Each structure stands twice: as C-alpha cells, then as structure tokens.
Amino acid sequence: MALAKGHRQNFDTLRRAMLAGDAALLECQLVASGEPAAVICAANRLHDGEIAFAPFAMLFSGNPYLAVNPPNPDGGFFSQTEVWQGEESRSLAATAAVAAKAAREIRLPCFGITICLDREATAEQPARGTIRSDLHERGRGRMIQKLNAAMDGLEALVLAHACAGIDVASPAYVEGIETAVDAIGNALF
C-alpha cells in the first residue's frame, strides 16, 4: 500500500511546523475510549494572539515496536516473527508472546525517565527503543529552547547507552544524569 497523498501533505505540513518551532505535544482524550493520548499538533497563530492547535499524529503508548510491522523492501510488511526472531513458523499468538517477553521497560528514579527497549541488548545486536521524561520545560523563549535542546541531547545519550546494553539504572549512572541536568541548568541560567 502506498502512502495516501493526504498523509504526505500532512507530514510535510507537520515537518514545516517543527522546523519553524510551531509544533506542540499535547495530552488529548480519545473520543472512542476516553483514554488519554499524546498528540503531535501544529500550532497556528491567530490574529488575536490565540493559538489554535491542529492535530496531525498520535504517539504510541507502550513499545512502538510491538504495535507495527515495518515495510519489507520486497513488498508488503515483515511479520512480528520476522522482526523479532527471523522465523516464519511461529503462530501470531506465539509471536506476540515472544515480543512481549523480549520488550523491556526501564524506569529510572529521576526526572520521570522511562525507556522502552525492543529486546535485551547484546554485543552482536543492540536494542532499539524510545525514551520519555519530564526533563523538558514548556514555553517558547530562547532560553527554554536551548534548555530543551540540551535535554534532547541528554535523552539521546541515555537512550543510546541503554540500547548498547549499559546499565542506565545503576545508582552511579542515575547520579551522573542528575549531575548532568544540574550542570546544564547552571550553564544556561
């Protein structure tokens, strides 16, 4: 299935909004279930100074690697079995069980940092993952943008270490994160 033209146009609009600093991540509520959802929005500045948010995409709750099958260059999509084990003989239920077992969530005791990895990392095969935290500040000022950029870098480093198999939950590593956040704050403010 090719991407719909509207999807490409929406993506291009969202990309322009991101580059211009006119994008936001909002907590919204799903109509069907009433559950909260993280929604990526473009921020449209209105003439009266108000901002209207146009929703464009939702972020995954939980491990995104368990929610989608990636495209296969030969056409179609890889199954979860192919993604996780390289075997095509497992049933879908068994595939889901393998994927759930392989997924790992790491909650650090600082700044609300949560890392979701698709598997345990090995020397031959590092993990892939996502990171969430409370490290970012709301606002649009220059200093807030600098602070958030620095926090993006710190999050990327912590995620890369977790994907490489480094124990980011160790007390020494957590202390290092706390020290880095303090140093960033001291350098910017």
Core attributes:
3 domains; 3-stranded antiparallel β-sheet; alpha+beta; 5 helices
Textual characterization of the structure:
With 189 residues, the chain is α+β, with helices and mostly antiparallel strands. The protein folds into 3 domains: 1-59, no CATH class; 65-102, no CATH class; 103-189, no CATH class. The protein is 39% helix and 20% strand. It is built from 5 helices and 6 strands; from the N terminus they run H-E-E-E-H-H-E-E-E-H-H. It has helices at 5-20, 80-84, 92-102, 142-164, 171-188; strands at 23-29, 36-45, 51-58, 104-107, 114-117, 129-132. It is globular. It starts with a helix and ends with a helix. Mean pLDDT is 82; it is low at 86-101.
Describe the SSE topology:
Blueprint: H1 5-20, E1 23-29, E2 36-45, E3 51-58, H2 80-84, H3 92-102, E4 104-107, E5 114-117, E6 129-132, H4 142-164, H5 171-188
Antiparallel strand pairs: 1-2, 2-3, 4-5, 5-6
Summarize the structure.
The chain has helices at 5-20, 80-84, 92-102, 142-164, 171-188, and strands at residues 23-29, 36-45, 51-58, 104-107, 114-117, 129-132. With 189 residues, the protein is α+β, with helices and mostly antiparallel strands. It has three domains: 1-59, no CATH class; 65-102, no CATH class; 103-189, no CATH class.
